Amino acid sequence: MKGGREALTSVFDTTCGQVRGRGATRGVVAVLGIPYAEPPFGANRFRAPRPRGSWTGVRDCVDFGPVPPQSAELPGAPRWSPDDEDVLSLNVWTPQGGNGATGRALPVLVWIHGGAYTFGSGAQPDFDGSALARAGLVVVTLNYRLGFEGFGHVPADGEDPYPPNRGLLDQVAALEWVRENIDAFGGDPDNVTVAGQSSGATSVACLMTMDGAHGLFRRAMAHSAVGPCYSPELAAHLMAKVAAAAAVPATPAGLASASPQTLVRASDAVVDGYRQDPDSGRHHWDPVLYGPVVDGSVLRADPLVALAAGTASGTDLLVCHTTQEYWLLDAVGSSAKVTGEEQLSRFAEDFGLPDSVTKGYRGLMPDASVGDVHLAVYGDLMFGEYSSRLAEAHAGAGGRTYLSRFARQRGGPDPVTYAWHCADVPFAFGNLDEESIHFLIGGPPTAADRHLSARMTAAWAGFAATGDPGWEPLGPAGGPVRTWETSDTTRAPGPALWADSAALRTLWRDVGYRPLRP
Questions:
Q1: Helix (H, G, I), strand (E, B) or coil at 86
Q2: Is 144 helix (H, G, I), strand (E, B) or coil?
């Protein structure tokens, strides 16, 4: 929250002890850095999260907690220090007085941040929950283990296995904390919505299908889910490469001997090696090392398969993706450039895409550069198509499902801000005035931007409260899709492909999403 440190006045009871948050700002109290599990280091390293021990007295929770190990330094957010170990914490925003105004417990929104399972935190400025709290929600953001600490494969040590998907298990632990404690903050533990974007959205989809998360939330929101998940074989293969880069044996003892900082650096070195090697297949284009692993236990199947089987048909689902996802990744230099047809063909071959996909996009984008064709294909492969299939799989199994697309653009003629990855999040959170996100949205907000943000915030609040965001759900054969844009949207150079979504979706008909292998 903005405005510096307010008076320490708001005290709440939790199962571990009392916490004191910041004084109210514009009717909202923020309680920051509440630990929900023990530090995942020392004897707890590479283990499932352990319940937090109790404390005596009142714990001041007026600052965000330390972020998990990572090399990213994000604007406005805390940075990781190798001395930081108490990284499993969460933050709560609640209307002043909680539910005193209505006498009813408030809907709860739990937010899981994205960041390629490698960086980010619940303390990022665009995730400030104040506006949503003023809309009548109790908002929770959280930290979970990232990178190797959260998703790296650790071989079994005799009969003492190290669980995969430790980051997902941390998210479950945070949801358990919410179930046990959120009523003290005015929230309804029986009306919880779990939401996320990018890797956070895929985390949400995984949680919908996990036995360990059953009953912890009623609804789910997934913005720009990325897929597919990893196979155990790929996780083991990447672990061996990271261990080699860290110069430690690929054993539990060897990996534990490497400091978190060493494994972060080793992971970055492996990523850089893939970037520099055009013969490294899909990893050259998408050098993300970590992700949920379909291990058959913690995660039984890729969410696409599990949702289609009706695993979570009783959970309401709201899905959104942006129409030009990958333009952001290109703008920040996280993906290899494609400047010629030969590179485009190599990209498609490395991802196993039939020629009909790239040819079809070229037909829908006759005036676009080869680079724009590549970005359109890549963004839809990774985010747009996967997100749409999640929605359709859930609806096809009888789950109440809503689908939307974020198409707001801004600019002209230069620079242009596309409807790209992450741009939808500050609109839904109502944080357009946060200076650190102006790169995402193309500068300070316009009046039309504020109107769009108000509509998106209302849709989130309505869905979290009642399961209805304001438009009709999908049926087994499809249905309406809400498009988010402003009346003064500027069409940027390149495609507005989702305006012809039927033709676009047909191109992906023969492309499958299976757990990735080496």
A1: coil
A2: coil
Q: How many CA atoms lie within 13 A of 348 on its CB side?
A: 22
Is-contact 275 287, C-beta < 8 A?
Answer: yes
> Which long-range contacts link 182-186 to residues 24+ away (Cβ below 8 Å)?
182/92, 182/108, 182/138, 182/140, 183/105, 184/12, 184/13, 184/14, 185/12, 185/31, 185/92, 185/94, 185/98, 185/138, 186/94, 186/95, 186/97, 186/98, 186/99, 186/100, 186/105, 186/106, 186/138
Catalytic residues: 198, 325, 421
CB 121 within 8 A of CB 84: no
User: Could you give the C-alpha distances from 304 to 137, 192, 219, 455, in angstroms and in order?
Assistant: 29, 22, 17, 29
How confident is the model over 131-160, as pLDDT tens digits? 999 999 999 999 999 999 999 999 988 777
pLDDT tens-place string over residues 16-26: 999 999 988 89
Contact indicator for 72, 121 with CB cutoff of 8 Å: no
CB 462 within 8 Å of CB 468: yes
Question: Which neighbouring-strand residues pair with 187?
Answer: 106
Q: How far apart are CA 189 and CA 192, in angstroms?
A: 6
Mean confidence (pLDDT) of the chain: 92
CA–CA separation, 112 and 203 (whole Å): 8
Gyration radius of the chain's alpha carbons: 22
pLDDT digits (tens, 9 = 90+) for 47-72: 999 999 999 999 999 999 999 999 99
3-state SS assignment for residue 13: strand
* Structural element, H or E, at residue 378: helix 370-379
CA 32 from chain centre, in angstroms, equals: 20
DSSP H helices in 30-183: 130-134, 147-151, 166-181
